[in-house]
Write a structure and sequence with these properties.
This protein has helices at 15-23, 42-57, 71-83, 129-140, 170-189; strands at residues 2-3, 65-69, 87-91, 114-120, 148-153. By secondary structure, it is of the alpha/beta class. The chain has a 5-stranded parallel beta sheet, with helices on both faces. α3 (71-83) links the parallel β2 and β3. The mean pLDDT is 92.
Length: 190
Amino acid sequence: MLLHGLGRDSGEQLQPWQVHLAERGYDVIYPRYEDPPPAPDARTNIVGAVGRALGDLGRPNVPLVLLGHSRGGRLAVEAAAFLKPRLVLAFYPGQINPEFEPPTNLKLIPPTTDIWLFVGDRDRSVGNQGALELDERLLLGGFPVEHIHGAVIKSKGFTADHMSVYDLSPAAKRAIWDRTDRLIERAIVS
């Protein structure tokens, strides 16, 4: 499952990544989970959309990987409490907005799920605050520290900022897509 960030058309730029994942043989679920954004029931919409998509694909027991950018990265971690994935990859995750969005009981995430929180070394719009908040919430919920992984995407031939998930340069693809591919492969083989 691939989740877009906050914004009316923020996910349209993720189409090349969807194609890349599909070309690698994966079924790609791309739910449009809110209209208009932000929606307080986004997590619920995601969980329902993924359940329906897995049923439509006829693959209800396939290993599930949740991948999200920005708000979608945080929501991927929260949806893990209900979808029971093997792997969650949150790129530049955003912070929860408690004014309209209820927090998720992260204790419901299976303790064997690997969660990766990625930040960019040049991300000045969201920075590392969302990743730090998720890490703290996971630890407070008793999630095993050995299954929480943090990583910094470094600017090498591209700028690793908040929008770099949309960068189609070879350097950005090596830093983001290739790393994602390796983590997914390792998760579904195990």
